[in-house]
Design brief:
Strand order of the largest sheet: 3-2-1-4-5
Strand content: 15-25%
Structural class: alpha/beta
Number of domains: 1
Radius of gyration: 16 Å
Length: about 150
């Protein structure tokens, strides 16, 4: 008798309140389910790295950012495990342009579901039509759950 199908989930988090909401939603949706979840954090690279030009030497700032990324991912793994998400929870750190890196991860891992946070920071919402995030959502070859940060009341 074959075991239950494992759902593959890619959860992209960035440390923002929208990323925290994406993590909360993933916990709620996949608690007690048979899933493999890959938690991805993208560190923004320099403009040269995004254009494929040789990167500058790694700095102390890079090491601090890497440590912060590992801390963020470790906390996410603990949260997922406490919520009963699993059996397999993986982590991944990438460097570059976040929408492009998340799209590359979707193409490489072929998840069943992508869970991302979206924090609208522009004062002009119409500027986001055609944005890289919008293209990611429309081009992803899987279901996409977009979490928005919860608004504080009071």
């Amino acid at each position: 008798m074959a075991g239950p199908d494992i759902v593959k989930v890619l959860l992209a988090i960035d440390g923002s309140s929208a990323g925290a909401e994406a993590l909360r939603i993933a916990c709620e949706l996949f608690s007690g389910k048979h899933v493999t979840i890959n938690v991805l954090h993208v560190m923004r690279g320099s403009g040269a790295e995004r254009r494929g030009v040789a990167a500058r030497p790694r700095s102390v700032n890079y090491e601090c950012e890497r440590l912060a990324a590992n801390t963020l991912l470790d906390a996410a793994v603990r949260t997922l495990r406490q919520a009963g998400v699993g059996p397999c929870v993986l982590t991944q750190i990438d460097m570059g342009d976040p929408p492009s890196s998340v799209f590359a991860a979707v193409e490489a891992s072929m998840p069943d579901v992508l869970v991302i946070g979206y924090q609208h920071v522009s004062r002009a919402p119409w500027l986001h039509v055609g944005s890289a995030w919008e293209r990611l959502v429309s081009r992803a070859r899987c279901s996409v759950i977009v979490a928005r940060a919860r608004e504080r009341v009071g």
